[in-house]
Amino acid sequence: MLGALDDTICAIATPPGEGGIGILRISGLHALDVASHVVRLRSGNALQDLPTHRLALADICADNTDVPAAGTKRTGALRFIDEALVVVMKGPHSFTGEDVVEVQCHGGPVILDQLCRGLISAGARLAAPGEFTKRAFLNGRLDLAQAEAVLDTIRAKTARSLTLAQSQRRGELSRHVEEIRSELVVALAHIEAALDFAEEDISFVRQDELLRLLDVTLQKLRRLLQSGRDGRIWREGAVVAILGRPNVGKSSLMNALLRSDRAIVTAIPGTTRDLLEESLSIDGIPVRLLDTAGIRMTDDPVEVEGIRRSRLAWTDADLALILLDGSQSLSESDRALLSEPGSTRALLVINKCDLPGQLSRGDLDRACPGHSAILEISATLSIGLDELRQAIRGRLMPGTWESNDGVLVTNLRHAVAIEQALQGVDQARQSVEAGRAGELIAMDLRIAADALGEITGVITTDEILDRVFAEFCIGK
Ligand SMILES: Nc1nc2c(ncn2[C@@H]2O[C@H](COP(=O)(O)OP(=O)(O)OP(=O)(O)O)[C@@H](O)[C@H]2O)c(=O)[nH]1
Ligand SMILES: [Mg+2]
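That is the input. Now the predicted structure with guanosine-5'-triphosphate docked in place:
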């Protein structure tokens, strides 16, 4: 059982708080009956007679009482709540594939709350998070990857992330994955047929043909998996941590990149003691920028904890910017940071280039040999920030995602499934080469095909669905 579809659900679809308009959605077998308890069309017609996909003016009325206790009848007189525009979308031509009614009223929390209560007392149930989209999936309106892309579309942080989410919602990733899966299924059918007719000595597929086919599949899967890193960044944002000893200007750089006074800046070393995180777009890439506590030897317990968090942030970051004070020569703390293993992958940024320089690129080369990425900036005067943004982009997105026909894996669940498929096909290929039994090859190919099927939801379980839709908000 992948979720019951026999009841009628309702939920407020607009965000909480006040708004010009608030929208309430009702979906299910009895959506029209339920809605007709609270919707009175101004035309005097019954809601059931309203043509589909046509807006109509209505009064919204509900019981004076709250939701009645079980077994009791609704007795309260009807009370006018608001006037609204109402649209009926008859299934299967609706988002969920079921009969849907949407009520557009004034966006006040009390109005929407009373409307919701009225619908519940008329027999609807409050929808669970993502339940409308889940129903769209269960009714075959969307596959699972497309359903997930609905959420990505809402959450997209930059124009590029939105384009990718929309392409996945249109089914481009699904088509690509299904193509690979169906190639595997064809190969599997040949192998299984060969097993069924083993005594008759009929060869259904030649070993070299099978190897060639599996090689092509492996290549496609590898490419998809490689796109996963870029994809994750487009979907969730890349974590970029600013690190350095106290007072080098980390918080100043954060503020300069954000173009706002987000972090406290003072001339006192040890100002920042906790992690600060802000989202921004750097050259179109969604970035979660972290300002950290300056790393140095100290006995102050608060600072020690801050430094511990700075180090954790470094471990988790997609990119670290190690900031140095160009108006001073390298200190012991600087040298210690530069000798950490993670520093070779960091961008080295010399700040305060507006002041007389005491730190040259040569000094850095000697302290951190072979490090090519050194930039000079002034956080307070915003000098060199464009070059820094470009360098950040270059580090985060070295490859070209276009190489994959524009298909990019942005979702960790998909990446895990592709990895599993890759292992299955790789195993199968080794077995073919070693001349192992057909049953073994078939088993590995079946695992691979099923893993790919989980992406689009051809193969799915309650557990997968629960995990996918738990991320959604109520009303979506
Ligand atoms: N001249 C000049 N001063 C700067 C520049 N960037 C930062 N400063 C100054 O350096 C001092 C420290 O700046 P912060 O941004 O607080 O440094 P921080 O690295 O965050 O320091 P902690 O939070 O203590 O680790 C402040 O007085 C800033 O005004 C710069 O580019 N040029
Ligand atoms: Mg600071």
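The CA atoms of residues 127 and 397 lie 39 Å apart.
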